[in-house]
Structure formats: structure tokens, C-alpha cells
Amino acid sequence: METDPILLQLIEHFKEIVTLEDHDIDRITSKLEIIQLKKKDFLLREGQTSRHMRFIAKGSLFAYHIDEKGKENTTQLGIENWWVNDLYSYLSELPSRMFIQANEDTTIVQISKNNLESLYKEVPAVSEFWRLKMQSAYVTLQERTFEHSRVDAYTKYRTFVTTYRNIEQRFPQYMIASYLGITVEYLSYLRKKHLSDVS
Prior knowledge:
By secondary structure, the chain is α+β, with helices and mostly antiparallel strands. The protein has a domain at 5-113: Sandwich (Jelly Rolls), CATH 2.60.120.10. The chain has helices spanning 5-15, 22-29, 87-92, 113-122, 124-150, 153-163, 173-180, 184-198, and strands at 33-37, 42-44, 52-58, 61-66, 72-78, 99-102, 106-112. The strands form 2 sheets. Strands 2-6-4-5 form a 4-stranded antiparallel sheet. Helix 4 (113-122) packs across helix 5 (124-150), helix 6 packs across helix 8 (184-198) and helix 7 crosses helix 8. It comes from Chryseobacterium aquifrigidense. This is CRP-like cAMP-binding protein. InterPro entries: cNMP-bd_dom, cNMP-bd_dom_sf, RmlC-like_jellyroll. Pfam families: cNMP_binding (PF00027). Residues 16-119 form the Cyclic nucleotide-binding domain.
């Protein structure tokens, strides 16, 4: 039976980090599920428990939480070949404190926690993949935490656009401003400054 190209996209993503045999691929794809979201659909809502790891095959998503003043605070942005999730909820099995919503029509490949834990035993390369992914995610989180408290807004913006090329055009300005912890007006100023500096 021919494997869905969307599932193969995820397999290729795995193979960028670990080696997979044909029988491994069959085991993995049998446990995957494809989810289609329309723009503004929710993948996860506050209060729900995250029970899947989710890979963006097509489209984009963003994650946010609402503070005590009712303001949306963007915590994650995600595009093709990225993973998006509330890892706190997934790992702790406690209700999520955030929303994950489609920014565009989006195709997700997801795997349940139970199926993923089965694969750790059946396909050791999957366990190795996630060990390396979690290490990378932790390093990224530490870097962002450090930047948030010690780096000026312009440096944050410059790091964002150079690290995540082409992502800025995919999301509304208010969302990027929220992610960077600045106002939309200040983001506009920083964009003009950056364009001037690189031209």
C-alpha cells in the first residue's frame, strides 16, 4: 500500500536526524493521523490536555495564552516542518494553559502519546529522534529566556528574522509583536531600521 505523501514528509523529517529502515517506516506510519484545520480552527484550547505530538506538514499555527488583563500573549509560531504543542500539558498530563490555533489552512500529522511511547520500544531510532529534539527545544527555550531579559528589542527582532527566515510574512504584525514582547508600532520602527541597516 502506497504511503500518503504527507506522512512521507514527516518520515523525511525523522530521517534528517536518525536512520530508519523500511520496516521502521511501516511501524511509524501505521500510528500517525492526519488532521486538516481551516484558518482560525483550534488545535488545542485552554483547559484541554495535550495528548499528541503534532507536526506541521502544511500551513502555520500559533500558540498563545490570555493573561489576567484579557490580553493575548503569543508564545509560539510554527510553519511547515516544525512541531507545535503545549509540552507542559503533554508531559505533565495537566490541562493546557494555552490555545493553539491555525493561522492559515493547515495540515497536521499527529501521534498520540500512547502510540509514541510504543514506538520508543518498537523503533529505537524514534526515541533517539525525540531525545535530540527535546535537547534542542530546551536550548532554544533557554536562549529565548536569556534574550527576553537581557537583550534589547532591536537585537531580538534581528535574531528573529535571521533565525526564522520567511516567517515574518506568514503572520500578522500584532502576533509577531506579541511574540517579541513589543508593541506593533515599535515593531514597525524596528522593521524600518533593520531594512535600512541591511540595504
